[in-house]
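Cast an eye over this sequence plus tokens and explain the fold to me:
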Amino acid sequence: PGLAERIARGGFPEAVARTSGARRRAWYEAYVATLLQRDIRDLADITGLLDLPVLLRLAAARVMGLVNFSDLARDAAMPQTTLKRYWALFETTFLIRPVRPWSANLGTRLVRAPKLAFGDSGLLCHLLGLEAARLREDALMAGAALESFVAGELTRQIGWSETRPSLFHYRTHTQHEVDFVMEDAHHRLVGIEVKKTASPKAGDFKGLEHLRENTGKRFL
């Protein structure tokens, strides 16, 4: 399958095995329902089960954006304390995966909020109603879905890597950003920029250049 198909299909073996889009959607619906109604309820005494699917879809719509609990709480019409409790359960069950901000002793101010990735790109696409055809046409959503897909692939590869680097993102208040930064135990850095284009431009590398200029020999 092509890249759009791989992103929309996701990585769950049960979903991958279903070649029909309708059957895959039915599996994801059952998976989300089971996770929210049984597994999360087993982890905590949750009374607002009807709020969880709404919050999960709100999260999906903000994929690879900076996490802003104030905005989320307003849109979900729930107190921040409740939202953060639900959010922690989403992380515990690997529905969502925060990408923490990278920082060091740099002279510039850095954005401290994590970015929001999803544990599985197929689940993300299911929540947003994105099929492979839509991913090929909608550049905005395709870019966010691709970046979240890459976050998942990097996380899996880190899991069996001998180097075992940590995964971060990098963003400054002067709008320099790098989608992903990996740092190993020796504080060596690798930057990764994700672009959905066949013709990258010089400007696409400005964030990587800024990171390199500010980290010297640590930047590989």
